[in-house]
Every structure is written in C-alpha cells, then in structure tokens.
C-alpha cells in the first residue's frame, strides 16, 4: 500500500460580507499534481472562479501597491476592459470619474456603486488608504451586480481590505517621497513682440471692413493710433505708443522696459509628496488581526493646493467557537488640505488660475512698475506690489490679479471619518451558515473660505464663509447561506435582507465686512449675507436571493433576484424587483479537453438581467418642493422650487452578456472576449414646459427615454518568457462602445444642451454644432454652411465658394450633427520584467477615435483679442488674397463669427498616455536576515509620465462628453521609496 500525504495550505484568505473564504492549495504526494481553487469576491460572498458566470475583474494589491496614488480610484484606470476613466484633476487627493460599460444615464448619476467589505460606501474614496486594500473587483454585468438591485445599473466596485493571517507576527514599514509636477503641457502662445502687430492687424482690417471708403494708409494710421490707447492700454516697449507698430511692423528699435511678464511661474511650481506606512499583523489558530497607520502629504504644483491624510485601522477576526466566528474593523481618518479653485465649475471666473494664466495676454505684468524707471515696485515693508490691472484691455480682467488673490484668499477643508464594520457568522450545521453584518460610517466635513478685502470679489470689505456637513450611513444585513454537494452536483443558496439608511446634515454661513486682520472666523465679520441649513434622509430596504448550481464545475447555472424599496419615490412605485439569470459551460472540464496540454482553460458563459438606478439629484423626486428664505425684511418669503411627477421611478437597465474565457499552455496565455448589450429604459429627462406655466427651470423630470450601450471587450495577457531567473509578461485590453437613444416620449423630440443634441438615433454625446466650412481664399472671411432658411436669399453675407452656398454670418449658419465624443476603441496595455531581484512594470492607456470640443484652444484663436493670449497657430492666419489656410483673417469687425462656437473647434481625441511605471529591487533574505529583516525592497514609481495627443495642451480624457474646461490638469508624480519587513 502506497502512503499518500496530503498537505493543505491556505493560499488566499478573504473576508467579504462577513464570510471568511479560503482558497486552498492541495498538494498530493508533495511532488504530484497541484490543484488551486481560486476564489474571487462576488456580491455578498465569494465563489470559485471557475464556476463564475458573470463578468468580474479582480485587481490585487500587488498590482498597485508601489504606486504613488492617494485615491484607490486612480488604480482603476486601465485595470479592466469596458471601464472608461475621466482622469482626475491635479488637486491632490482628487478622484477620477468612472463609467463601466458606457453611459448609464443622461440626467442622473453614471458612477458605479462602491462596496467596502460587504457594505455600501458613499464617502469620498480619498478616505481609504490604498495600502489597506487587499483587492478590488469590478462587476460589470447583471449576473454580477443584480444582488445590489436599484443601485447597480452603473456597475459595482467591491473593495476588500487586508486582514491578518495565521502564523508569526509580521511588521512592515514603508516610506516614499518624490516630486509633483504638471503632466499636460500648456498650449503654445505668441510672445509680446509677435502680439502687438497681430492686434494692430485686426484693428486695421476691421477699419477697412467697417469704413469701406478708407484707404489702406488711413486704416494703418488708425490702427497705429488706437492700438494702445484704444485697445491694449499697455505698452511694455520703450518707444512711443504711436511709434510701436508702423505699417504692421514692430518698431525695430523697441526694447522691453521690463521682463517680469510670467503669470504661471509664481502660481505653478514643483510640489512634494511623502507617504509613510506602518502595519502589524498576525494571528493564532483562532484569532487573526491586522492593524495599520499611515500618513500621506502631497502638495500640488499649484500653490496653496495640498492634501494631508492620517489613517489608523484595526481589523480582528476570531473563531470563538467551532460554530461561531466574529469580526470587527474600524478605520479612523483625518484629512485636510488647501483646495484649489475647481476649474471645471469656474471655467471662466476671475479666480480661476488656469483660465487666467492661459488666456492672459503676453504684454501684462503681474507687478506694478515705476512709471519713470520701470523698476518693480515694493511697499514700505519690502513686499512686492501687484498690478491691479487698470491699464489692461477688455479681455485681460482689468481690476483683478490672480496671483495676489490666490495668495490672499483661503479655502481649507477638514474631514473626519469613522468607517466601521462588524459581523457574526454562525455555523448552524455543516451546510447552513447564518451571518449578520453591520456597517456604520460617519463623515464630518468642514470647509472654510476667506475672500480677501484688498482685491477681488469681496473687496473692500472682505468676506468669509463656513460650510459643514455630516453624513451618516448605517447598513445592516442578515444572510442565510446554504451549501450542499450531492455527488457531482453542487448547490449554493443565499437568502438575505438589508436595511440602508443615509442621513445628510448641512449648514452654511456667509458674512461680509471684516473687522480685524488675520481672522477669518465668522465673528470677525459684520453683515450676515446667508445662513442656511438642511437635513436629508434616504432609506432603502431590500430582500434578495441567489441560487448557484454547477455539475462537476462543468455546467454552470446562476440566478438571483432582489426586491428594493427606495424612499426617493412615492409609495405606489417604491418597490421593484431586479433579477438575473446566467449559465456557463466550462469546456475545459469535458473529457475531450481534460488532458489537453494546449488548452488549459476554456469557458463559455452568458447572462441576462435587470438592475436599476435611483441616483437622482433629489431625495424627494415625487414631491413638489419650495425654496425658503426669500424674505422681504421681516416678511417671510417662499418660492416654488421643483415641480414633481409623482409617478417617477427608477431607470432600469436590461443587460445581456456573452463571454469566452480562455487559457493556453498552462495559462501562459490567458484572456477573455465579451459582448454586452445594455438597454436603459425609463430614462429620466427634464421635459420642457411652457414659460407661461410658471414651472421652475421650465421643465419637469419624467421617465421618458430609452437608450442602449453595446460593445465588445477583449482582454489578453501572457508570459512571453518564463524561467528561473527571468520573466517577461505582456497584457492588453481593448473595448468598443456604441451608444444610441432609441426612444423619447411625452412630446419630446430633442433636447439641446450646450454642444450636444439628444434625439432618437443619436448618442447622448453626439455634437450638434454650426457647420464650419473654412476660410474664403479671396478675402479671409470665416465661412459656414448656410442654413436652409437663408440659402436662397440675396444678402451680402451669403456667397458661393467652390460651388457651395456659405455664409459669413454665424447667425445664419447651418446646425448639424458633427461626430461624437465616444471613441472607436479604448483600453490599456502593459508589460513587466522580472530578472532575479529586479522588477520593472509599465502601463499605457490609449484611445482611438472620437472628437473633443476644444474650447480652451478656441479662446486662444480669437480674430480680435483685446488683451487675451493668442495661440501660435494664429500666425497661420489669412493675409493675402488666394492664400489657402484654415485660420481667418484678423478683423475687429468680423471676429464674432470667426470665434463663434462651431465644428471648427472639434479635434481628434486620439491619445496614448504612459500612465504609470515601477522599478523595484528586492534584497535576498539571507543577505538581510542578520539585521533582523525578513524583507527589504527599494522602489521608484511614476504616474502620468508622458502623453501624446492631437494638439499640444489638449487633454482629451478630462470629460466623457468630450468638452474641455480651464481646469487643474493632472499631475505627474515620481517617487522613490523603500519597504522594510520584520
């Protein structure tokens, strides 16, 4: 009789939704066949990977552990096919926007649902320490997400935190530090010597247009006389104003009186990042524990923008009895920082430093100068004197100074979080487990702003505002799980109930009239302008069930259903059911493939189901609301605020998915191919109402639309070379997306919103713009395709060019669809090398197709700038009859047409970005053991290292809808660090 020894070692230990899950590695005869049952996190539990029928992408901690990221959402970029990421701003700690499998909605949230350790998480992701996270799973189809019901239409991200492991205690410390800089270069712009003749040319050409009887010589003289006194107001050269530009040529004797013309230098510099981590973990046969503390401090490349976070976390799991397991975890987080101006919400505001530094003409200095000596001026205390801009053109923000205002103003946030989880798991019998999970999160956010009294919006009195809001979420679920095996038949049945409660408390105060300096508390201000508060409540109750079945891990079936009630909707439509069914065939398990050395994994799977979206911007969608506080002295006032449709209910996603998972040569090559079709019905749209009806905003929100998202996803990876000393791996993913509105009702045929028009047969991101034709070679006029209503008129602003009817008047231009913001293909690819103790990895993200409406560039291409900056592309302007160019003549009389919103400003959205890279060196254990170390690793990491776009300065990934704003562009971060293990 042959003695056989079976050793069982724990390969993976997870905790999710109160369930401890072990993936076990079985070794037979110690040298024989090895079998690993890989386990992945799913909704309310875990499951063997080989029996999954849903679309579930797992990203483990080692894939982002050494990256200098402050927000775990940054690790999602490029991690999975079908996931599109709008890059976060450069504000330290900022989170990117994420869309999973297309555009889930038009009028309400398209963000995925986040679940932390089995409990819904609605706080800021910047509160989670990335180094406390063991893995995250991206759930993309209905089979994976339907157990989250009404919140799952946009996909789900399951975040699992680290837990202790049985065995010796482990202590580790890591530290990294590095620099923060600007990743996206600025648009190229003309300098001062180029600028004056260009503006002169616009004035001269405008004079010839507005006064047809004028001679060229007279128009030249007019432009010379009015260039400074009439338009630009400032002459920084040492020649007389009327001698600066003669006949279009800058005076060759002109020399700069001063050179401190840089607005960017004082605002943008090199930031600094530092991160420290300490964790201690271990456990016995009954109890495991994991604890950590961390400190992150990152200053942005814009002055007075930073993020500081301190986290402390403890997680304990204990097998109290052989039938009872309990556990708890608690995280305390304190974060604070200086907030930069949100450029997206303040696109053209005077306090927007990105708009100001981009668009300020190159002839204005931030500083005051002595009118005689031209020296920079200082006050009695030795402080530099800023120029308030009283001698600037109309496009150069007279009376303001962004550098001085940024230095004087304050915007500080202080946030405090408690994130807690607790569970109990009772083993009723070998097959039946009862568990209960409780999650309680509380977030207190305080924001203080001070607006200075010297210059800007609050001058001369000064102002202060305080905002505070507290959010509490309480989740409690009870789960009954039954697992049973009958021969080759495997069953798992889950029955659950869940309560969710969200409480939001808000208070805001604003006062003006500063009393003493250096005190921005409200008591130091005289006049209360605004004082308000509100409390919102949101509740959900749910019952859900899931049944999984497989036969010998070859034939797979899964079904789930959830009933949800949301307090956002009226009682009559509050409850709804969401469900899914899925099936799979693990072909590799069949006899004809079991012994195949070529095919190591092959599984065909498919699913269909319905999930919902109740992420509206109101907690009371079915109620008419009224706005208080519109008082007249002591007489109370109230305004009609929102007209509700009491029948409004969730948007519903009907999702189908077909996928093929494969592996070859013992999974040296592996991947998947998927096709999905996602139909959203009952889309919530703002239905227009007559102005005479008195409805606020002239619309009422109703369920009136239907649209689909569909596409293919391909993921592939493999080890090109793999031996004892050297491994080279490659991976890539690619996705397509087709979005289309298929139905509108309640009398709606179209909705025009900015650069887009919503109508049946088109995407929600299709551009609707005036049709730009080009530039007339005869006279440099801007040309548009003429609208049908004006095509047969004889107006002087309509002409025929190359046989095409066009107009020089943008008000008569034809509107039409002009492409889409949705790319043809997007995804990522990467590689990693391991040679002995060295390891290198890199990832690139890319996009092919689609268009961006580059309004930032448009603002630099004015045909008549009155103090604003100009792109170097303006040098290609029309100047001579017969010249072929795409840039109209500079002309102060026709510039409104040249500058008008049109298809002229669309540009290709293609890009490739060197998203991140890591270089590490791990010392041999025998080399460092004499120092009491079990591990020592050195590392260099980088984020947003390089990108290539269709135009310098363009940032095509900043918004899903393809628009641009003057925002805080992403940061490049490079750090060095080490990790010690004891």
TrEMBL record:
Q: Where is the TonB-dependent receptor-like beta-barrel domain?
A: 420-873
Q: Establish whether keyword Ribonucleoprotein is in the entry.
A: no
> Which keywords accompany this UniProt record?
Cell outer membrane, Membrane, Receptor, Signal, TonB box, Transmembrane, Transmembrane beta strand, Transport
Q: Which GO terms describe its cellular component?
A: cell outer membrane
Give the record's membrane topology: Multi-pass membrane protein
Any idea where the TonB-dependent receptor plug domain is? 49-156
Record's subcellular location? Cell outer membrane
InterPro entries registered for this protein in UniProt:
Beta-barrel_TonB, Beta-barrel_TonB_sf, Plug_dom, Plug_dom_sf, TonB-dep_OMP_SusC/RagA, TonB-dep_OMP_SusC/RagA_CS, TonB-dep_rcpt-like
Q: Which residues form the signal peptide?
A: 1-20
Pfam families, per the entry: Plug, TonB_dep_Rec_b-barrel
PROSITE patterns named in the record = TONB_DEPENDENT_REC_3 (PS52016)
On whether DNA repair is a keyword of this UniProt record, the answer is no
Main localization of the protein described in the UniProt heading = membrane
Task: Give the similarity note.
Answer: Belongs to the TonB-dependent receptor family.
Q: What's the protein here called?
A: TonB-dependent receptor
Which species is listed as the source? Answer: Chryseobacterium soli
């Amino acid at each position: 009789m042959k003695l056989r020894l079976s050793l069982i070692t724990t390969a993976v230990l997870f905790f999710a939704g109160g369930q401890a899950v072990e993936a076990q590695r079985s070794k037979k005869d110690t040298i024989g066949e090895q079998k690993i049952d890989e386990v992945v996190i799913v909704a309310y539990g875990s499951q063997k990977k080989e029996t999954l029928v849903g679309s579930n992408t797992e990203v483990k901690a080692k894939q982002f552990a050494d990256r200098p990221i402050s927000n775990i959402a940054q690790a999602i970029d490029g991690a999975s096919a079908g996931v599109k990421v709008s890059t976060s701003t450069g504000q330290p700690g900022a989170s990117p926007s994420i869309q999973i499998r297309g555009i889930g909605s038009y009028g309400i949230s398209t963000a995925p649902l986040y679940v932390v350790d089995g409990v819904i998480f609605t706080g800021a992701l910047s509160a989670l320490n990335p180094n406390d996270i063991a893995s995250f799973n991206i759930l993309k189809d209905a089979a994976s997400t339907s157990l989250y019901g009404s919140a799952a239409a946009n996909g789900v991200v399951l975040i699992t935190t680290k837990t202790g492991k049985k065995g010796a205690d482990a202590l580790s410390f890591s530290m990294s530090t590095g620099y923060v800089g600007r990743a996206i270069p600025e648009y190229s712009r003309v300098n001062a010597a180029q600028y004056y003749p260009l503006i002169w040319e616009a004035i001269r050409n405008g004079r010839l247009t507005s006064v047809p009887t004028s001679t060229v010589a007279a128009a030249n003289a007019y432009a010379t006389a009015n260039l400074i006194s009439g338009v630009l107001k400032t002459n920084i050269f040492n020649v007389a104003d009327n001698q600066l530009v003669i006949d279009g040529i800058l005076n060759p004797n002109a020399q700069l009186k001063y050179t401190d013309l840089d607005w960017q230098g004082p605002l943008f510099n090199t930031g600094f990042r530092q991160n420290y981590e300490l964790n201690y973990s271990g456990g016995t046969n009954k109890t495991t524990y994991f604890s950590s503390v961390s400190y992150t401090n990152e200053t942005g490349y814009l002055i007075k923008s930073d993020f500081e976070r301190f986290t402390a976390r403890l997680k304990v799991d204990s097998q109290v009895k052989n039938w009872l397991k309990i556990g708890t975890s608690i995280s305390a987080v304190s974060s604070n920082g200086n907030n930069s101006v949100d450029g997206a919400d303040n696109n053209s505001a005077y306090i927007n430093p990105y708009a100001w530094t981009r668009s300020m003409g190159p002839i204005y200095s931030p500083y005051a100068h002595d009118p005689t000596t031209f020296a920079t001026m200082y006050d009695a205390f030795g402080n530099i004197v800023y120029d308030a801009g009283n001698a600037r053109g109309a496009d150069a923000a007279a009376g303001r100074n962004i550098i001085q205002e940024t230095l004087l103003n304050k915007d500080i946030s202080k946030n405090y979080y408690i994130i807690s989880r607790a569970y109990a798991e009772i083993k009723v019998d070998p097959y039946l487990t009862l568990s209960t999970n409780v999650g309680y999160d509380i977030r207190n956010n305080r924001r203080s702003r001070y607006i200075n009294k010297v210059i800007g919006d609050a001058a001369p009195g000064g102002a202060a505002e305080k905002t505070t809001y507290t959010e509490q979420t309480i989740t409690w679920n009870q789960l009954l799980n039954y697992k049973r095996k009958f021969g080759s038949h495997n069953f798992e049945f889950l029955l659950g109930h869940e309560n969710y409660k969200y409480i939001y408390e808000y208070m805001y105060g604003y006062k003006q009239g500063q009393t003493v300096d250096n005190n921005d508390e409200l008591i130091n201000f005289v006049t209360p302008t605004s004082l308000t508060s509100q409390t919102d409540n949101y509740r959900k109750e749910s019952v859900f069930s899931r049944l999984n079945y497989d036969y010998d891990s070859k034939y797979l079936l899964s079904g789930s259903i959830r009933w949800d009630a949301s307090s956002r909707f009226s009682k009559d439509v509050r409850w709804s059911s969401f469900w899914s069914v899925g099936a799979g065939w693990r072909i590799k398990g069949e006899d004809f493939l079991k012994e195949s050395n070529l095919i190591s994994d092959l599984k065909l799977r498919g699913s269909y189901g319905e999930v919902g979206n109740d992420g509206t911007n109101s907690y009371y969608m079915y109620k008419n609301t009224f706005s208080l506080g519109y008082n007249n002295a002591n007489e109370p006032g109230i305004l009609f605020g929102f007209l509700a449709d009491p029948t409004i209910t969730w948007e519903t996603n009907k999702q189908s998915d077909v996928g093929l998972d494969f592996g070859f040569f013992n999974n040296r090559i592996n991947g998947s191919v998927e096709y999905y079709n996602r139909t959203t019905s009952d889309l919530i749209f703002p239905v227009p109402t007559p102005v005479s009806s008195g409805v606020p905003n002239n619309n009422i929100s109703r369920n009136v639309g239907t649209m689909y998202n569909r596409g293919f996803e391909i993921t592939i990876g493999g080890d090109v070379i793999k031996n004892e000393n050297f491994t080279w791996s490659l991976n890539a993913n690619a996705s397509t997306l087709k979005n289309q509105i298929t139905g509108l009702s309640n009398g709606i045929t179209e909705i025009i919103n900015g650069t887009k028009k919503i109508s049946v047969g088109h995407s929600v991101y299709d551009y609707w713009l005036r049709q730009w034709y080009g530039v007339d070679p005869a006279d440099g006029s801007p040309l548009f395709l003429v609208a049908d209503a004006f095509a047969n008129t004889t107006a002087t602003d309509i002409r025929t060019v190359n046989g095409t009817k066009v107009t020089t008047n943008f008000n008569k231009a034809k509107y039409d669809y002009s492409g889409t913001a949705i790319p043809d293909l997007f995804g990522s690819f990467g590689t990693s090398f391991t040679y002995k103790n060295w390891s290198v990895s890199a990832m690139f993200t890319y996009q092919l197709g689609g268009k961006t409406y580059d309004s930032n560039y448009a603002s630099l291409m004015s045909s008549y700038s009155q103090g604003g900056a100009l792109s170097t592309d303006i040098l290609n302007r029309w100047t001579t009859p017969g010249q072929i160019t795409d840039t109209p003549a500079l002309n102060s009389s026709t510039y409104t047409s040249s500058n008008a919103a049109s298809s002229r400003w669309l540009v290709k959205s293609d890009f490739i970005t060197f998203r991140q890279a890591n270089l590490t060196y791990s010392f041999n254990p025998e080399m460092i053991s004499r120092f009491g170390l079990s591990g020592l690793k050195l590392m260099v990491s980088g984020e947003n290292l390089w990108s290539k776009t269709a135009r310098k300065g363009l940032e095509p990934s900043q918004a899903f809808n393809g628009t641009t704003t003057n925002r805080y562009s992403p940061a490049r971060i490079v750090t060095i660090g080490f990790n010690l293990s004891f």
